[in-house]
Amino acid sequence: MSVLILVEHDGSHIKDATLPTVTAASQLGEVHVLVVGNNADGVAQAAAKIAGVAKVHVANSPALEHQLAEAVAPVVARLMEGHDAFVAPATTTGKNIAPRVAALLDVMQVTDILSVEGPDTFTRPIYAGNAIATVKSKDAKKVITVRTTAFEKAAADGGSAAVEQVDAGGDPGSSSFVGLEASKSERPELTSAKVIVSGGRAFGSSEQFHALLDPLADKLGAGVGASRAAVDAGYAPNDYQVGQTGKIVAPEVYIAIGISGAIQHLAGMKDSKTIIAINKDEEAPIFQVADIGLVGDLFKIVPELTEKL
Amino acid sequence: MKLLVAVKRVIDFNVKPRVKMDGSGVDLANVKMSMNPFDEIAVEEAIRLKEKGVATEIVAVSIGPAKAQETLRTALAMGADRAILVQTDEEVEPLAVAKILAKIAEEEQPGLVILGKQAIDDDNNATGQMLAALLGWPQGTFASKIEVSDSATVTREVDGGLETVKLKLPAVVTTDLRLNEPRYASLPNIMKAKSKPLATKSPGDYGVDVARRLETLKVVEPAKRQAGIKVGSVDELVERLHGLGIAK
Predict the structure, then answer these.
(1) DSSP secondary structure, B83-110, as one string
(2) Nearest C-alpha of chain A: how many angstroms from B201?
(3) Measured between CB atoms, which of A103, A176, A220 is closest to B165?
(4) With A206 labelled, which of A88, A195, B126, B201 sits at a CA distance of 20 to 30 A?
(5) Does B16 sit within 8 Å of A130, measured CB to CB?
(6) Nearest by Cα to B128 from B61, B79, B71
(7) Cβ B17–A180 below 8 Å, yes or no?
(8) Which of A77, A33, A76, A36 is nearest to A53 (CA)?
């Protein structure tokens, strides 16, 4: 079986989400990857070095620069004539493009897989991770998105795959990129951070959220996350949100501060190696999943913790 | 401009789902069901576009059991003008839902189809993208802002921040959480909704085969985490963090 992966990149660097996707795909068959972009040859060269990658396809065109689904999906669909499965990380890019590819191929996507049980059998979370389904795909070709925290990362070095230019298609002309308001942060990205400090609505304001959490994160070299409640209240931008409908993270250490632990938040972080909870309510559900808990007032605890670290 | 919104009847988001003992699925007997929260946001956005004078008519569609009528009545009570129920007792996958919606879109010719980005039961996050592919229309997924004129400008919640795209109409948009806060239907509007038109169809009327492509072999509860220890002071916590090797 040959598997085609869509490489996640920002035009110059491969994003970490690609690496666990390679691991998942290698459990299905020979791994080929596709890099789409404009002048993406540098990324393609880097992709060729990923351990386990047998071939790199690269499609270059101005229409592919921002990886809009309308332009990318037909390129993938054409390449799928020679592949048995298409696999993408379940990032916002993968989630945007993969179902569009699936429909073009008349395939029902297997979403957000946690494990590969066989060539056509996978486990995946449903009901916000409250249940795990084992599903078997009856489609001849597979379209799969991968929960990246569920697979080890493939090594970014060690491979030496051949790079081949492929048909980049035309510009469908139906959509155009206007802009990206990128979150500027010197901190590690949530999905690859080793330590995450995450805040909830208990912080009370955006000012207090940042005044208390940022110094702690700086001390720990941590990424900063937030509960949905904190994001909805405007304390933190949307891409901070950890949870079933936000980012799924699995750092070495996750420190949840002033987060009660709603089901949908737990779904996004319960695979973290060690969970630490700080909350004034000792009955908060977060303590049921926390390895280490501290009951108390975050406005006292967080500054003291930051100082003593 | 006509708007099409798709709504799904799902387990209420406040209910904790229970896995059936025989591993065949999640127990939905005697469980409160509601409109999928992301779809409520879709209905609300359609109503706001109508209130702004951008849209003239809102057609709500649901594909599901007879009881999905209640979900459609909720959409009508919120402000949709008429509804179509494509009735089936099968569990219809996103691909088949998208095929039915594509047929309805061909009939109704909406300028915009608005859907929730994902249903909170099967968590696929696929129907909108699939529908856009089948129609050959552009898509604006995970929308946190929609501006409609002769095109649609959609701000999308993406991993790295907020991306804005411009879509030619007709287009498909899927909603994220922060697009709006859905209204509650008022009692007079709930009464009025009872007399709004609701057509009942079947998947066969649209020539769509809803046979499942994914067979569910079993459904289990996820591995549980054990609660750990509580520490009594910040000093103890600092010591633990040192022990984990994350603090210098």
Answers:
(1) EEEEE-SS---HHHHHHHHHHHHHHH--
(2) 23
(3) A176
(4) A195
(5) yes
(6) B61
(7) no
(8) A33
